[in-house]
Specification:
Low-confidence stretches: 1-10, 389-397, 450-456
Strand order of the largest sheet: 2-1-3-6-7
Structural class: alpha/beta
CATH topology of the largest domain: Rossmann fold
Largest sheet: 5 strands, parallel
Number of domains: 4
Distance between the termini: 53 Å
CATH class of the largest domain: Alpha Beta
Helix content: 40-55%
Protein backbone atom coordinates (compact mmCIF):
# COMPACT_ATOMS: atom_id res chain seq x y z
CA UNK A 1 0.00 0.00 0.00
CA UNK A 2 1.06 3.54 -0.63
CA UNK A 3 1.29 5.87 2.31
CA UNK A 4 -1.83 7.93 2.80
CA UNK A 5 -4.20 5.37 1.25
CA UNK A 6 -6.97 3.94 3.40
CA UNK A 7 -6.90 0.23 4.03
CA UNK A 8 -9.63 -1.27 1.86
CA UNK A 9 -12.25 -3.56 3.26
CA UNK A 10 -14.21 -6.40 1.74
CA UNK A 11 -13.37 -7.41 -1.81
CA UNK A 12 -11.22 -4.35 -2.32
CA UNK A 13 -8.67 -5.97 0.00
CA UNK A 14 -6.42 -8.61 -1.56
CA UNK A 15 -4.30 -11.32 0.01
CA UNK A 16 -1.37 -13.10 -1.59
CA UNK A 17 -1.10 -16.75 -0.48
CA UNK A 18 2.20 -18.55 -1.07
CA UNK A 19 2.24 -22.32 -0.40
CA UNK A 20 3.42 -25.27 -2.46
CA UNK A 21 0.67 -27.60 -1.16
CA UNK A 22 -2.44 -27.32 -3.38
CA UNK A 23 -4.76 -28.47 -0.56
CA UNK A 24 -3.59 -25.69 1.77
CA UNK A 25 -3.78 -23.09 -1.01
CA UNK A 26 -7.36 -24.15 -1.71
CA UNK A 27 -8.28 -24.16 1.98
CA UNK A 28 -6.88 -20.68 2.53
CA UNK A 29 -8.42 -19.41 -0.70
CA UNK A 30 -11.90 -20.57 0.33
CA UNK A 31 -11.50 -19.21 3.87
CA UNK A 32 -10.38 -15.78 2.71
CA UNK A 33 -12.99 -15.51 -0.04
CA UNK A 34 -15.70 -16.26 2.53
CA UNK A 35 -14.30 -13.33 4.52
CA UNK A 36 -15.01 -11.15 1.49
CA UNK A 37 -11.38 -10.83 0.39
CA UNK A 38 -9.75 -11.14 -3.01
CA UNK A 39 -7.08 -13.86 -3.18
CA UNK A 40 -4.17 -14.78 -5.43
CA UNK A 41 -2.49 -18.10 -4.59
CA UNK A 42 0.91 -19.26 -5.89
CA UNK A 43 3.33 -22.06 -5.02
CA UNK A 44 6.84 -20.57 -5.23
CA UNK A 45 8.84 -17.55 -4.13
CA UNK A 46 9.54 -16.63 -7.76
CA UNK A 47 5.82 -16.60 -8.56
CA UNK A 48 5.14 -14.55 -5.41
CA UNK A 49 7.71 -11.93 -6.42
CA UNK A 50 6.13 -11.71 -9.85
CA UNK A 51 2.68 -11.19 -8.30
CA UNK A 52 4.09 -8.49 -6.03
CA UNK A 53 5.51 -6.66 -9.05
CA UNK A 54 2.21 -6.78 -10.91
CA UNK A 55 -0.41 -6.41 -8.19
CA UNK A 56 -1.16 -4.55 -4.99
CA UNK A 57 -1.89 -6.47 -1.82
CA UNK A 58 -2.93 -5.80 1.75
CA UNK A 59 -1.47 -8.99 3.24
CA UNK A 60 0.89 -11.78 2.22
CA UNK A 61 0.55 -15.20 3.85
CA UNK A 62 3.49 -17.50 3.05
CA UNK A 63 4.67 -20.95 4.00
CA UNK A 64 8.15 -21.22 5.50
CA UNK A 65 9.29 -24.09 3.25
CA UNK A 66 8.91 -23.59 -0.48
CA UNK A 67 10.42 -25.43 -3.47
CA UNK A 68 12.73 -22.55 -4.44
CA UNK A 69 13.70 -21.22 -1.02
CA UNK A 70 12.66 -20.29 2.51
CA UNK A 71 9.72 -18.13 3.44
CA UNK A 72 12.16 -15.93 5.35
CA UNK A 73 13.58 -14.84 1.99
CA UNK A 74 10.14 -13.57 0.99
CA UNK A 75 9.69 -11.85 4.37
CA UNK A 76 12.94 -9.94 3.87
CA UNK A 77 12.09 -9.18 0.23
CA UNK A 78 8.74 -7.64 1.20
CA UNK A 79 10.32 -5.70 4.06
CA UNK A 80 12.66 -4.06 1.53
CA UNK A 81 9.84 -3.06 -0.82
CA UNK A 82 8.33 0.45 -0.77
CA UNK A 83 4.94 0.62 0.87
CA UNK A 84 3.68 -1.08 3.98
CA UNK A 85 2.66 -4.67 3.29
CA UNK A 86 2.27 -6.95 6.34
CA UNK A 87 3.46 -10.52 5.80
CA UNK A 88 2.59 -13.53 7.96
CA UNK A 89 4.19 -16.97 7.85
CA UNK A 90 2.93 -20.53 8.15
CA UNK A 91 5.29 -22.67 10.21
CA UNK A 92 5.46 -26.39 10.85
CA UNK A 93 3.94 -27.58 14.13
CA UNK A 94 6.39 -27.07 16.98
CA UNK A 95 8.83 -24.99 14.91
CA UNK A 96 9.18 -22.24 17.48
CA UNK A 97 12.61 -21.28 16.15
CA UNK A 98 11.24 -20.61 12.68
CA UNK A 99 8.42 -18.50 14.07
CA UNK A 100 10.82 -16.43 16.15
CA UNK A 101 13.19 -15.99 13.19
CA UNK A 102 10.31 -14.80 11.00
CA UNK A 103 9.14 -12.28 13.60
CA UNK A 104 12.67 -10.93 14.00
CA UNK A 105 12.93 -10.59 10.22
CA UNK A 106 9.86 -8.36 10.19
CA UNK A 107 6.90 -10.73 9.85
CA UNK A 108 3.61 -9.40 11.19
CA UNK A 109 2.62 -12.72 12.79
CA UNK A 110 2.66 -16.49 12.26
CA UNK A 111 0.27 -19.43 12.23
CA UNK A 112 1.28 -23.06 12.83
CA UNK A 113 0.35 -26.18 10.88
CA UNK A 114 -2.09 -27.84 10.94
CA UNK A 115 -3.63 -24.51 10.00
CA UNK A 116 -6.45 -23.46 12.33
CA UNK A 117 -8.98 -21.47 10.33
CA UNK A 118 -10.18 -19.37 13.26
CA UNK A 119 -6.56 -18.43 13.97
CA UNK A 120 -6.10 -17.49 10.30
CA UNK A 121 -9.23 -15.32 10.39
CA UNK A 122 -8.04 -13.54 13.54
CA UNK A 123 -4.62 -12.94 11.99
CA UNK A 124 -6.13 -11.55 8.78
CA UNK A 125 -8.51 -9.26 10.65
CA UNK A 126 -5.61 -7.91 12.71
CA UNK A 127 -3.43 -7.32 9.66
CA UNK A 128 -6.18 -5.48 7.82
CA UNK A 129 -6.84 -3.36 10.93
CA UNK A 130 -3.35 -1.89 11.02
CA UNK A 131 -3.53 1.92 11.07
CA UNK A 132 -1.73 3.89 8.41
CA UNK A 133 1.72 5.09 9.36
CA UNK A 134 1.46 8.51 10.92
CA UNK A 135 -2.22 8.08 11.77
CA UNK A 136 -2.75 9.71 15.19
CA UNK A 137 -3.51 7.41 18.10
CA UNK A 138 -6.98 7.63 19.60
CA UNK A 139 -5.54 8.00 23.08
CA UNK A 140 -3.45 10.98 24.12
CA UNK A 141 -0.47 8.95 25.32
CA UNK A 142 2.98 10.20 24.50
CA UNK A 143 6.63 10.07 25.47
CA UNK A 144 7.73 13.59 26.29
CA UNK A 145 11.20 14.73 25.29
CA UNK A 146 13.38 15.13 22.23
CA UNK A 147 16.72 13.73 23.40
CA UNK A 148 18.36 11.10 21.13
CA UNK A 149 17.46 8.18 23.47
CA UNK A 150 13.77 9.12 23.52
CA UNK A 151 13.66 9.75 19.76
CA UNK A 152 15.11 6.26 19.24
CA UNK A 153 12.51 4.73 21.57
CA UNK A 154 9.66 6.43 19.70
CA UNK A 155 10.97 5.14 16.36
CA UNK A 156 11.24 1.61 17.74
CA UNK A 157 7.73 1.74 19.21
CA UNK A 158 6.36 2.79 15.80
CA UNK A 159 7.97 -0.28 14.21
CA UNK A 160 6.88 -2.68 16.98
CA UNK A 161 3.29 -1.48 16.74
CA UNK A 162 3.13 -2.87 13.19
CA UNK A 163 3.92 -6.46 14.19
CA UNK A 164 2.46 -9.03 16.53
CA UNK A 165 5.90 -10.13 17.77
CA UNK A 166 6.34 -10.59 21.52
CA UNK A 167 8.23 -7.62 22.96
CA UNK A 168 10.39 -7.55 26.08
CA UNK A 169 10.80 -4.08 27.60
CA UNK A 170 13.82 -3.64 29.84
CA UNK A 171 14.80 -0.69 31.96
CA UNK A 172 15.14 0.59 35.49
CA UNK A 173 12.16 0.96 37.82
CA UNK A 174 10.10 4.00 36.98
CA UNK A 175 11.51 4.45 33.47
CA UNK A 176 8.14 4.17 31.69
CA UNK A 177 7.95 0.51 30.64
CA UNK A 178 4.16 0.29 30.95
CA UNK A 179 3.72 3.54 29.02
CA UNK A 180 5.86 2.08 26.21
CA UNK A 181 3.71 -1.08 26.20
CA UNK A 182 0.52 0.99 25.99
CA UNK A 183 1.95 3.02 23.11
CA UNK A 184 2.79 -0.16 21.19
CA UNK A 185 -0.80 -1.28 21.75
CA UNK A 186 -2.61 1.96 20.82
CA UNK A 187 -0.59 2.42 17.63
CA UNK A 188 -1.15 -1.16 16.47
CA UNK A 189 -3.83 -3.36 14.96
CA UNK A 190 -5.22 -4.29 18.41
CA UNK A 191 -5.87 -0.70 19.50
CA UNK A 192 -9.67 -1.26 19.69
CA UNK A 193 -9.27 -4.38 21.84
CA UNK A 194 -8.35 -4.68 25.54
CA UNK A 195 -4.98 -3.80 27.00
CA UNK A 196 -4.63 -5.88 30.18
CA UNK A 197 -1.70 -5.01 32.49
CA UNK A 198 -0.68 -7.62 35.06
CA UNK A 199 1.81 -7.18 37.90
CA UNK A 200 3.22 -10.69 38.09
CA UNK A 201 4.89 -10.04 41.44
CA UNK A 202 1.61 -9.11 43.14
CA UNK A 203 -0.16 -12.46 42.59
CA UNK A 204 0.14 -15.13 45.32
CA UNK A 205 1.83 -18.26 43.94
CA UNK A 206 -1.17 -20.42 44.86
CA UNK A 207 -3.48 -18.29 42.70
CA UNK A 208 -1.27 -17.47 39.73
CA UNK A 209 -2.56 -20.23 37.39
CA UNK A 210 -6.24 -19.50 38.02
CA UNK A 211 -5.64 -15.76 37.66
CA UNK A 212 -3.93 -16.22 34.28
CA UNK A 213 -6.11 -18.95 32.77
CA UNK A 214 -9.37 -18.75 34.73
CA UNK A 215 -11.20 -21.63 36.39
CA UNK A 216 -14.31 -23.78 36.23
CA UNK A 217 -16.98 -23.89 38.90
CA UNK A 218 -16.00 -26.38 41.60
CA UNK A 219 -12.33 -26.51 40.54
CA UNK A 220 -11.34 -25.71 44.12
CA UNK A 221 -12.88 -24.51 47.36
CA UNK A 222 -14.46 -21.12 46.76
CA UNK A 223 -14.82 -21.55 42.99
CA UNK A 224 -18.57 -20.98 42.99
CA UNK A 225 -18.86 -20.08 39.31
CA UNK A 226 -16.83 -20.13 36.09
CA UNK A 227 -14.37 -17.27 35.80
CA UNK A 228 -12.15 -16.03 32.99
CA UNK A 229 -8.47 -15.24 33.53
CA UNK A 230 -6.14 -12.60 32.17
CA UNK A 231 -5.72 -14.40 28.85
CA UNK A 232 -9.48 -14.48 28.20
CA UNK A 233 -9.82 -10.84 29.32
CA UNK A 234 -7.12 -9.80 26.83
CA UNK A 235 -8.43 -11.97 23.98
CA UNK A 236 -7.97 -10.08 20.73
CA UNK A 237 -5.82 -7.50 22.49
CA UNK A 238 -2.58 -7.19 24.43
CA UNK A 239 -1.50 -8.82 27.69
CA UNK A 240 1.22 -6.82 29.44
CA UNK A 241 3.21 -8.90 31.94
CA UNK A 242 4.96 -6.43 34.22
CA UNK A 243 7.75 -7.79 36.45
CA UNK A 244 7.56 -11.08 34.57
CA UNK A 245 10.75 -12.21 36.34
CA UNK A 246 8.69 -12.73 39.50
CA UNK A 247 6.65 -15.58 37.99
CA UNK A 248 7.21 -18.95 39.74
CA UNK A 249 9.09 -21.52 37.65
CA UNK A 250 6.05 -23.85 37.54
CA UNK A 251 3.96 -21.06 36.02
CA UNK A 252 6.71 -20.20 33.55
CA UNK A 253 6.27 -23.65 31.96
CA UNK A 254 2.52 -23.12 31.52
CA UNK A 255 2.98 -19.61 30.20
CA UNK A 256 5.45 -20.89 27.60
CA UNK A 257 2.92 -23.45 26.35
CA UNK A 258 0.14 -20.84 26.19
CA UNK A 259 2.35 -18.55 24.09
CA UNK A 260 3.49 -21.31 21.75
CA UNK A 261 0.14 -23.03 21.26
CA UNK A 262 -2.07 -19.92 21.57
CA UNK A 263 -4.40 -22.03 23.69
CA UNK A 264 -5.13 -22.14 27.42
CA UNK A 265 -6.92 -24.53 29.77
CA UNK A 266 -8.91 -23.23 32.70
CA UNK A 267 -8.20 -24.78 36.09
CA UNK A 268 -10.63 -27.68 36.51
CA UNK A 269 -11.34 -27.99 32.77
CA UNK A 270 -10.40 -30.84 30.42
CA UNK A 271 -10.68 -28.70 27.30
CA UNK A 272 -8.32 -26.08 25.90
CA UNK A 273 -9.62 -22.90 24.31
CA UNK A 274 -7.98 -20.77 21.65
CA UNK A 275 -6.85 -17.28 22.63
CA UNK A 276 -5.55 -14.50 20.40
CA UNK A 277 -3.29 -12.43 22.63
CA UNK A 278 -0.19 -10.37 21.98
CA UNK A 279 2.35 -10.66 24.80
CA UNK A 280 4.43 -7.71 25.96
CA UNK A 281 6.56 -8.27 29.04
CA UNK A 282 8.80 -6.14 31.20
CA UNK A 283 11.00 -6.22 34.28
CA UNK A 284 13.60 -4.00 35.92
CA UNK A 285 15.70 -7.09 36.61
CA UNK A 286 18.27 -8.50 34.18
CA UNK A 287 16.50 -11.54 32.72
CA UNK A 288 19.66 -12.92 31.14
CA UNK A 289 21.34 -13.03 34.56
CA UNK A 290 18.27 -14.77 36.04
CA UNK A 291 18.43 -17.39 33.27
CA UNK A 292 22.07 -18.08 34.13
CA UNK A 293 21.16 -18.34 37.81
CA UNK A 294 18.42 -20.87 37.04
CA UNK A 295 15.63 -18.57 38.26
CA UNK A 296 14.05 -18.02 34.83
CA UNK A 297 13.50 -20.56 32.06
CA UNK A 298 15.72 -20.07 29.05
CA UNK A 299 13.07 -21.27 26.56
CA UNK A 300 10.54 -18.78 27.93
CA UNK A 301 13.15 -16.03 27.85
CA UNK A 302 13.69 -16.61 24.12
CA UNK A 303 9.95 -16.57 23.41
CA UNK A 304 9.38 -13.34 25.35
CA UNK A 305 12.56 -11.64 24.15
CA UNK A 306 11.86 -11.88 20.43
CA UNK A 307 12.41 -8.12 20.22
CA UNK A 308 13.81 -6.07 23.09
CA UNK A 309 12.97 -2.43 23.75
CA UNK A 310 15.35 -0.73 26.19
CA UNK A 311 13.87 2.21 28.06
CA UNK A 312 16.49 4.84 28.94
CA UNK A 313 16.89 6.10 32.48
CA UNK A 314 16.04 9.70 33.25
CA UNK A 315 19.77 10.30 33.76
CA UNK A 316 20.27 9.45 30.08
CA UNK A 317 17.76 12.13 29.06
CA UNK A 318 18.82 15.07 31.22
CA UNK A 319 18.02 17.61 28.51
CA UNK A 320 14.37 16.49 28.70
CA UNK A 321 13.96 16.70 32.49
CA UNK A 322 12.69 20.30 32.50
CA UNK A 323 10.07 19.58 29.85
CA UNK A 324 8.98 16.33 31.51
CA UNK A 325 8.80 17.96 34.95
CA UNK A 326 6.76 20.90 33.64
CA UNK A 327 4.31 18.56 31.90
CA UNK A 328 3.88 16.46 35.05
CA UNK A 329 3.38 19.57 37.18
CA UNK A 330 0.70 20.84 34.80
CA UNK A 331 -1.08 17.46 34.87
CA UNK A 332 -1.13 17.05 38.66
CA UNK A 333 -1.83 20.71 39.47
CA UNK A 334 -5.04 21.06 37.46
CA UNK A 335 -7.18 18.49 39.39
CA UNK A 336 -6.08 20.05 42.70
CA UNK A 337 -7.37 23.46 41.65
CA UNK A 338 -3.89 24.94 41.31
CA UNK A 339 -3.60 25.12 37.54
CA UNK A 340 -1.27 28.11 37.85
CA UNK A 341 1.39 26.21 39.81
CA UNK A 342 4.77 26.08 38.11
CA UNK A 343 8.40 25.23 38.80
CA UNK A 344 10.88 28.08 39.08
CA UNK A 345 13.88 28.15 36.78
CA UNK A 346 16.12 27.34 39.77
CA UNK A 347 13.98 24.31 40.64
CA UNK A 348 14.16 23.04 37.06
CA UNK A 349 17.94 23.45 37.09
CA UNK A 350 18.16 21.54 40.37
CA UNK A 351 16.05 18.71 38.99
CA UNK A 352 18.31 18.62 35.93
CA UNK A 353 21.29 17.90 38.16
CA UNK A 354 19.59 15.28 40.34
CA UNK A 355 20.40 11.57 39.88
CA UNK A 356 16.84 10.13 39.88
CA UNK A 357 17.45 6.50 40.89
CA UNK A 358 13.65 6.10 40.67
CA UNK A 359 13.43 7.78 37.25
CA UNK A 360 10.14 9.34 36.08
CA UNK A 361 8.13 7.71 38.86
CA UNK A 362 10.40 9.33 41.44
CA UNK A 363 10.15 12.67 39.63
CA UNK A 364 6.36 12.49 39.77
CA UNK A 365 6.43 11.65 43.50
CA UNK A 366 8.78 14.59 44.19
CA UNK A 367 6.49 17.01 42.36
CA UNK A 368 3.31 15.72 44.01
CA UNK A 369 4.92 16.12 47.44
CA UNK A 370 6.22 19.61 46.60
CA UNK A 371 2.79 20.74 45.36
CA UNK A 372 1.04 19.34 48.44
CA UNK A 373 3.41 20.97 50.94
CA UNK A 374 3.97 24.32 49.24
CA UNK A 375 1.64 27.22 50.06
CA UNK A 376 2.76 29.06 46.93
CA UNK A 377 2.18 28.31 43.26
CA UNK A 378 5.87 29.05 42.71
CA UNK A 379 7.56 25.70 43.40
CA UNK A 380 11.20 26.39 44.28
CA UNK A 381 14.30 24.39 45.16
CA UNK A 382 13.43 24.21 48.86
CA UNK A 383 9.97 22.83 48.06
CA UNK A 384 11.49 19.91 46.16
CA UNK A 385 13.09 18.57 49.37
CA UNK A 386 15.55 16.41 47.47
CA UNK A 387 17.01 13.94 49.93
CA UNK A 388 20.57 14.22 48.73
CA UNK A 389 22.64 16.98 47.17
CA UNK A 390 22.41 17.07 43.41
CA UNK A 391 25.33 15.75 41.44
CA UNK A 392 28.46 17.72 42.16
CA UNK A 393 31.06 18.58 39.57
CA UNK A 394 34.86 18.83 39.70
CA UNK A 395 34.58 22.52 40.59
CA UNK A 396 32.47 21.90 43.68
CA UNK A 397 33.94 22.88 47.03
CA UNK A 398 34.07 19.41 48.53
CA UNK A 399 36.96 17.32 49.88
CA UNK A 400 38.21 14.87 47.25
CA UNK A 401 37.66 11.69 49.37
CA UNK A 402 34.00 12.56 49.96
CA UNK A 403 33.56 13.48 46.30
CA UNK A 404 35.01 10.13 45.14
CA UNK A 405 32.98 8.23 47.74
CA UNK A 406 29.81 9.86 46.42
CA UNK A 407 30.62 8.78 42.86
CA UNK A 408 31.44 5.22 43.97
CA UNK A 409 28.28 5.05 46.09
CA UNK A 410 26.09 6.16 43.19
CA UNK A 411 27.68 3.63 40.81
CA UNK A 412 27.12 0.79 43.28
CA UNK A 413 23.52 1.81 43.96
CA UNK A 414 22.80 2.04 40.24
CA UNK A 415 24.19 -1.47 39.70
CA UNK A 416 22.25 -2.85 42.66
CA UNK A 417 19.07 -1.19 41.42
CA UNK A 418 19.47 -2.72 37.95
CA UNK A 419 19.94 -6.21 39.44
CA UNK A 420 17.26 -5.96 42.15
CA UNK A 421 20.04 -5.91 44.79
CA UNK A 422 21.57 -9.17 43.58
CA UNK A 423 25.16 -8.60 44.73
CA UNK A 424 26.71 -11.23 42.45
CA UNK A 425 25.06 -9.75 39.34
CA UNK A 426 25.88 -6.20 40.49
CA UNK A 427 29.56 -7.08 40.95
CA UNK A 428 29.61 -8.46 37.41
CA UNK A 429 28.08 -5.24 36.06
CA UNK A 430 30.68 -3.18 37.92
CA UNK A 431 33.56 -5.36 36.76
CA UNK A 432 34.73 -6.21 40.29
CA UNK A 433 34.69 -9.33 42.45
CA UNK A 434 31.87 -10.15 44.83
CA UNK A 435 34.25 -9.75 47.77
CA UNK A 436 35.36 -6.31 46.57
CA UNK A 437 31.75 -5.21 46.22
CA UNK A 438 30.91 -6.44 49.73
CA UNK A 439 33.88 -4.55 51.17
CA UNK A 440 32.90 -1.32 49.39
CA UNK A 441 29.28 -1.63 50.52
CA UNK A 442 30.40 -2.06 54.13
CA UNK A 443 32.78 0.90 53.89
CA UNK A 444 30.15 3.16 52.37
CA UNK A 445 27.36 1.99 54.68
CA UNK A 446 25.20 0.52 51.91
CA UNK A 447 22.84 -2.22 53.06
CA UNK A 448 20.42 -4.49 51.23
CA UNK A 449 17.31 -2.50 50.27
CA UNK A 450 18.86 0.51 51.98
CA UNK A 451 16.13 3.13 51.61
CA UNK A 452 18.53 5.97 52.24
CA UNK A 453 20.94 4.58 49.68
CA UNK A 454 18.30 4.14 46.99
CA UNK A 455 17.13 7.68 47.44
CA UNK A 456 20.64 9.09 47.41
Amino acid sequence: MKRGEHRPEGRDARVLVVDDEPDIRELLDLTLVRMGLGVDAVGTIAAAKEQLREGRYNLCLTDMRLPDGEGLELVRHIAALPGDLPVAVITAYGSAENAVAALKAGAFDYVSKPVGLEQVRALVRSALSLPERGEPARETLSLIGDSPPLRAVRETIAKLARTQAPVYISGESGSGKELAARLIHVHGARRDRPFVPVNCGAIPESLVESEFFGYRKGAFTGAEQDRDGFFQAANGGTLFLDEVADLPLAMQVKLLRAIQEKRVRKVGSTQEEAVDVRIISATHQVLGALVQAGRFRQDLFYRLNVIELKMPSLRDCREDIAEIASAIMERIARPSGRAGARLTDEALEELGRYGFPGNVRELENILERALALSASDEIGVVDLSLEAPSETGPGAVEPLPQYLDAIERRAILDALGKTDFNRTAAAKLLGITFRALRYRMQRLGIHDRDPGGRAA
